[in-house]
Each structure stands twice: as C-alpha cells, then as structure tokens.
Task: inverse folding
C-alpha cells in the first residue's frame, strides 16, 4: 500500500498528493459526498480541537478519545488508537498538535491494513458459476445491495441471476423482482414460505441451464432465534456447496452504519453462526458515525468489501481505505 509513509509517519500535506489518477480521484469524491455528515458533525471538532490547542497534554488526548467515540469508532478501538498516539508522541518527541494530525491518519490506516493485503475484490472467476450469499438483520439493505451488485456486474457484461431466498414475506420476493427488472437481471423465485434451501437448489439448476455467470442470493434477516438462523444458513450453505464446488464463493454480511455499535453486536451473531467472507456497510451517507468502519475491522477482523453511499443503483463503492480516510478528513486537515 502506497501512502507516502516514511518511518511510520505520513508526509505532511499528503492529502494533496494522495490521488494521482483521475479515476481514483473521482471515486474518492463519492466518499467525500457520502461521508459529509461524519465530517461535518463530528470530525470538524477534531480540527477545532487541534487548531486551538497549544500543547499535547492529557486533556487533549481525552478530548480526542471523545471525538473518536462520537464518530462511532468504538471504545476498545479508540483506546487502542489513542494509546498508540500517546506512545508515538513520546517516542518521536512530537510537541505540536499540527504534527499529531498526520499521526492520527497514519494510525487509522495501520489499524485497517494491519500486516496483510486487504483486498475488497470479490472472489469471482470467469470460468464458473459464481455464488454470493447476502446475510444480515432486517432492514439493513440486503435487497438494495443485491440490486446494486447486480447492476455492477451487468455493466461488466455478466449474466446475473437474482434469487429470492427471503421467502418469509411475499413483499420481499416482489421487491427483488422489481429490482431485477430494473437492472435487467434474471430473477428466480418460488412461492412465499418455501424452504430457502430448495429455492437455492432450483435457482442453481436454472443458472446452469441459462449460462448464468453470477448468482446473488437474498436471505431473510430474522434473528430472533440464533439456533434456527444457524440451521437455516448451514442448510443453505450445504445445498449450494453440493451443487457448485467451492460455493458460495462469498458470504457477505450486510451492516447498517446508522445502527452503529448496536448493529455491530448483531453482526457478530452472524459471524458466530456462519463463515463470513466480507462486510457490506450500508447507509454510510445517512450517518455521522462513519468511524464504524474501523470498529468493524478491528473487532471482527473481516474486510469491508463494499460501502453503500445512497439509495441509487450506482451508490455502491468497493471499499478503499485511502478513499475512506479522504472522505472523512478532506478539508478538515
Ligand atoms: N441512504 C441509504 N439508504 C439505503 C442504503 N442501502 C439501502 N438503503 C435503504 O434502506 C432501506 C432498507 O433496504 P432493503 O434493501 O429493503 O433492506 P433489507 O435488508 O433487504 O430488508 P429486509 O428484507 O426487510 O430484511 C431501503 O429504504 C433502502 O433504500 C444506502 O447505502 N444508503
Ligand atoms: Mg430484503
């Protein structure tokens, strides 16, 4: 990852030089628009704090903690970040709040990247039928995200099948059907109340007969009973895996950013019962709690693959930590 970082500290003014390609800059602008609330409601306080402070004392670090917690970075993660900052300030003999800005950004990058290459690409290959399963609690944006992903892959020339695996209510089936028509994707459904696993089984037969490249499976988000949820998801996984080797190739957990830490604890239940390969964080545009990205990464260790930045089909972005940080801090630092 190229961040212009040397000796652990990012170069002063790195925002200006962050994006050299035009395409990348354009993508970053979408984050900037989508994260306007986080930037203006919370992180602008950070600028005020650092611009008005004249030394790095305990009060300043306490206030930093408060601001990060307001941005929903999560208490454990915030404590980690601020402890690192205190240590580094001491070790590097940093004395001015201005220098601390670069360190804050650097710590956030490091927290996300850790020691590995974090890719937001999906495991999708050209020579097979690919299956992606979407899970998550009610109302987080599963169905809308499926439509957005379908739109993305249709635009890339793939044949996409949207599968109505949320058989719990008729409305869910219809909603997905309407999206499929709008996107121009194939659509597979059975009647309300059908066993979701049997829907998946039949949908895979359809996919094999119709040269489908990518199957996107909707699921119901009921969480009332962990045991049932586990059983249902296990069964779905088993059926899909039996019909297509190595499938589902991705199981994406959808989390609503506006529900903050609460959403995060719900999400952990899914992580307990099924093998999650990536996170989709929706409604980042509707919240001042954009810091939740860092809490999810730190507490769940699962990469964020997509972020939802609005309700339109094109309001879905592959997650990129540089663009995200840019969206949070641009104009503040
Ligand atoms: N602002 C904003 N709204 C979103 C985003 N993603 C989804 N929504 C909205 O969130 C609401 C719920 O979305 P759905 O896709 O129906 O959620 P779901 O998880 O399928 O819900 P259930 O099927 O009831 O479990 C809808 O009004 C969407 O338009 C996003 O990224 N930003
Ligand atoms: Mg739905």
Result:
């Amino acid at each position: 990852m190229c961040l212009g970082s040397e000796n652990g500290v990012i170069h002063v003014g790195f925002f200006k030089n962050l994006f050299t390609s035009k395409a990348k800059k354009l993508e970053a602008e979408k984050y900037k628009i989508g994260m306007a609330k986080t930037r203006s409601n919370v992180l602008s306080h950070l600028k005020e704090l650092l611009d008005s402070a004249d030394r790095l004392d305990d009060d300043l670090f306490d206030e930093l903690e408060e601001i990060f917690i307001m941005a929903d970075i999560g208490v454990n993660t915030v404590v980690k970040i601020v402890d690192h900052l205190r240590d580094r300030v001491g070790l590097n003999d940093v004395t001015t709040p201005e220098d601390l800005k670069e360190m804050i950004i650097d710590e956030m990058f490091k927290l996300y990247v850790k020691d590995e290459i974090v890719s937001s690409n999906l495991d999708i290959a050209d020579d097979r039928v690919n299956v992606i399963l979407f899970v998550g609690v009610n109302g987080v944006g599963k169905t809308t995200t499926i439509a957005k992903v379908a739109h993305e892959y249709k635009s890339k020339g793939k044949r996409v099948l949207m599968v109505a695996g949320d058989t719990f209510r008729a409305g869910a089936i219809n909603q997905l059907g309407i999206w499929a028509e709008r996107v121009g994707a194939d659509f597979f459904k059975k009647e309300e109340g059908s066993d979701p696993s049997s829907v998946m089984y039949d949908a895979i037969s359809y996919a094999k007969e119709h040269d489908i490249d990518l199957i996107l499976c909707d699921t119901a988000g009921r969480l009332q009973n962990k045991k049932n949820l586990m059983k249902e998801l296990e069964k779905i996984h088993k059926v899909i895996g039996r019909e297509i080797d190595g499938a589902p190739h991705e199981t994406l957990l959808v989390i609503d950013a506006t529900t903050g830490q609460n959403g995060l604890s719900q999400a952990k239940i899914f992580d307990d019962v099924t093998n999650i390969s990536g996170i989709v964080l929706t409604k980042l545009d509707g919240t001042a709690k954009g810091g939740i990205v860092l809490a999810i990464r730190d507490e769940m260790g699962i990469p964020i693959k997509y972020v939802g930045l609005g309700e339109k089909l094109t309001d879905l972005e592959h997650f990129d930590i540089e663009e995200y940080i840019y969206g949070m801090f641009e104009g503040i630092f």
Observations:
- The two ends are 21 Å apart (CA to CA).
- The chain is about 50% helix and 10% strand.
- Residues 1-12 have pLDDT under 50 and may be disordered.
